[in-house]
Design a protein that fits this description.
The complex is a heterodimer.
Chain A (H helix, E strand, L loop, with lengths): L3 E10 L2 E11 L4 E6 L5 H8 L7 E6 L2 E2 L4 H7 E4 L12 H11 L4 H14 L15 H13 L5 E5 L7 H16 L3 E5 L3 H7 L2 E6 L2 E7 H5 L7 H9 L7
Parallel strand pairs in A: 3-8, 3-9, 6-7, 7-8
Antiparallel strand pairs in A: 1-2, 1-4, 4-5, 9-10
Chain B lengths: L2 H16 L2 H35 L1 E7 L4 H7 L4 E4 L4 H7 L4 E5 L3 H6 L7 E4 L4 H28 L20 H24 L1 H14 L1 H5 L6 H32 L15 H28 L3 H22 L17 H12 L4 H27 L7
Classes of the chains: A alpha/beta, B mainly alpha.
Bound molecules: adenosine-5'-triphosphate and magnesium ion (MG).
Chain lengths: 246, 392
């Protein structure tokens, strides 16, 4: 059974339908790219997978646990990173921020410290790991947030626009990290507005538009849909329903 | 709910607050600076005005200044005679405190047994002028008594003929009880205000603020239950309310210790160990109630700003019952007050400081308070579990 299966989930906020019934799955060791315009429903979908929002219909299973019925078990399986401004406890140091989440997942002592040091090495945060995060730049905070997401070594990783705010070298480090995690057999859902990044990292992509899933498959399969070479143009072609771009 | 999770989160909240100077200023410096200053200023300005009023009493005497009363007035401590072109204006301007008009040939008229009218002008809006008037009245009365006793003597009577009854009055209240009743009127108000307002900045920050910063969203994806998160936050807000009210109490004790040695002193020696425990219990229950109410408001709020607007009335809410109860003695507190939220705590605080604790009331207040705490915490828990209220 695939680690992530999403079956017919939808989400309504009052009269607004943010996500229409959606079905996809992610395999072990796979990176699925989630693409869509602003407001397409990517964050809403991830929030449902992360047990924050309850789907209006459908079912999500993560490593066999039902998101709606076994929320606590699901939470131990996942690590999630939200896009936008990165929220941190500003008066705590980077290490304290990461350690706090580590303890909530049951880590402690030497094991936790070693894990934090490894993550700090991987993300090149050694220089500021023991400083308070308040004055950090957006990219520095993003690195701390990534470490916080991965501290408990989750099997399923949900990343909502994780590279926003990272400089070029940090983005490169991050991509290497994703590659490493994929090799370690993690299951990753990754949303981005950067098609180049998606192409480099993802095995398959899911394209959402106005709450609907327009495409779910490999990049070669996506390319086969049209003769347009540029992926950005191809994406626009797809979401505008084949109408020419003005 | 996991007590380990609660403890981890509670520790983190305290560490976070510990490093936030602004919160400490709100929670500690205000009780330690503002309360003593207010009490100091109040007692100082009252005694200063009094001292000044006594030390120098400039009055204007008009009319026949050759009379014996003038010398008698001059003997009063602090009295200085002034001359003024317009004596009434001088009183209005504050240069003179009062004006007395002595009728011509006063002494002669009195010897003849006539009834004389004398006029005094003063400024009732000026505390020092009021004192000058009292001094003049007192002085005129003693002058009058001298004349009366001479008349009685002439008629072959003693002054006992005029005042056949002598009255001796004794105060039954100990100094402790006097202190208690004075403290019982102001301290519950102060403690209540500190309990309610001490937790507000933190309550705003740890739900509405965290929602705004996105940290709460991350927290609820961790394997911790909503109850654990709420419990940790409740304990944090309670801690701040209690710290703030204990700081107010400590600051009050410090002020009491600083009082001058002589004269009437306020003490808290009437507080027995049992009543101190009861006091602490009441404060804990009240702080839990306020913390739960504040967390509810912070959860409903869509932004820290909105939370702040919702919280402002909480401090008022805390003040109204204490204010209504302030002038009452425990015997006068209506029974309904022991049942209503906040009122019940304020009423019990009053009894504790008054030293008249009614066990029956203790039972009612503690059980109703517990009920209100359970209800508000359940409401907060329901809001916490409500989808979407913890994310922006
Ligand atoms: N809590 C909510 N209440 C009401 N409507 C919401 C809520 N959350 C999201 N929506 C609506 O759902 C739709 C999808 O929003 P969502 O945040 O999932 O988009 P997104 O694909 O993540 O966009 P972006 O690329 O800008 O991050 C939008 O129309 C949004 O206004
Ligand atoms: Mg989004």
């Amino acid at each position: 059974m695939e680690p992530v299966t999403v079956k017919g989930i939808s989400k309504c906020f009052g009269t607004i339908t943010a996500v229409e019934p959606l079905t996809f799955s992610i395999r072990k060791g796979e990176v699925l790219g989630l693409i869509g315009e602003n407001g397409a429903g990517k964050t809403t979908t991830m929030r449902m997978m992360a047990t924050i929002l309850k789907p209006s219909t459908g079912e999500i299973r993560i490593n066999g646990y039902c998101v709606q019925k076994e929320a606590m078990a699901v939470r131990t399986q996942i690590g999630i990173l939200f896009g936008g401004d990165v929220g941190m406890y500003n008066r705590l140091t980077a290490r304290e921020n990461i350690a706090f989440f580590g303890t909530l997942y049951g880590l402690a002592g030497m094991e936790l410290n070693k894990r934090i040091d490894d993550l700090a090495d991987m993300l090149e945060m050694g220089a500021f790991i023991d400083r308070r995060v308040g004055p950090f730049s957006r990219g520095m905070k993003q690195k701390v947030a990534i470490a916080r997401t991965l501290v408990h070594d989750p099997q399923v990783i949900l990343l909502d626009e994780p590279t926003t705010g990272l400089d070029v070298s940090a983005a490169v480090i991050f991509r290497q990290l994703i590659t490493t995690m994929r090799q370690a057999g993690k299951t990753i859902l990754f949303s981005s507005h950067n098609m180049g990044e998606i192409e480099k990292l993802c095995d398959r992509v899911a394209i959402m538009h106005k709450g609907k899933l327009l495409f779910h498959g490999t990049i070669p399969a996506l390319r086969a849909k049209s003769s347009i070479h540029d992926l950005d143009d191809l994406f626009v072609h797809l979401v505008t329903g084949g109408k020419p771009i003005e | 709910m996991s007590s380990r999770h609660v403890w981890m989160m509670f520790q983190k909240e305290l560490l976070d607050i510990w490093r936030d100077t602004k919160t400490w200023i709100a929670a500690l410096v205000i009780p330690f600076l503002v309360i003593p200053s207010i009490i100091y200023l109040m007692t100082q300005s009252i005694s200063n005005v009094e001292q000044e009023a006594r030390a120098y009493v400039p009055i204007v005497i008009t009319g026949d200044t050759s009379q014996g009363l003038v010398a008698h007035l001059q003997k009063e401590p602090g009295v200085k005679l002034l001359t003024a072109a317009d004596p009434i204006q001088a009183v209005k301007e504050g240069a003179a405190r009062a004006v007395i008009m002595i009728p011509p040939k006063l002494d002669q008229a009195l010897r003849q047994g006539a009834l004389v009218n004398m006029e005094v002008w003063y400024d009732a809006a000026n505390q020092k002028s009021v004192y000058a008037r009292e001094l003049i009245e007192k002085s005129v009365r003693t002058y009058e008594e001298g004349i009366v006793s001479k008349r009685l003597e002439a008629a072959g009577l003693t002054s006992a003929a005029m005042h056949p009854i002598s009255l001796s009055v004794s105060n039954l209240a100990s100094q402790e009880r006097v202190s208690g009743s004075m403290l019982a009127s102001i301290v519950p108000l102060m403690l209540m205000l500190a309990l309610a307002s001490g937790g507000i900045p933190v309550a705003t920050d740890i739900v509405a603020g965290e929602k705004d910063r996105g940290t709460l969203e991350t927290l609820i994806t961790a394997p911790v239950s909503a109850q654990s998160i709420l419990t940790a936050k409740l304990l944090t807000v309670m801690t701040m309310g209690l710290v703030s009210s204990l700081a107010s109490g400590a600051s009050l004790m410090w002020v009491l210790r600083m009082q001058p040695k002589e004269g009437e002193k306020l003490t808290i020696s009437f507080l027995q160990p049992e009543s101190a425990v009861l006091l602490l219990g009441t404060l804990v229950l009240l702080s839990a109630f306020f913390a739960a109410v504040e967390l509810c408001l912070s959860t409903i709020a869509r932004s820290p700003r909105e939370a702040h607007i919702y919280m402002t009335p909480v401090a008022f809410l805390a003040l109204i019952p204490s204010y209504l109860i302030m002038p009452l003695t425990p015997a006068d507190i209506p029974f309904a007050y022991y049942l209503l939220p906040i009122f019940n705590g304020a009423a019990l605080l009053k009894e504790i400081f008054y030293g008249q604790i009614e066990p029956w009331h203790v039972l009612i207040v503690l059980s109703t308070s517990l009920l209100y705490v359970v209800l508000t915490i359940s409401l907060a828990a329901a809001l916490f579990r409500r989808e979407g209220l913890l994310v922006k």
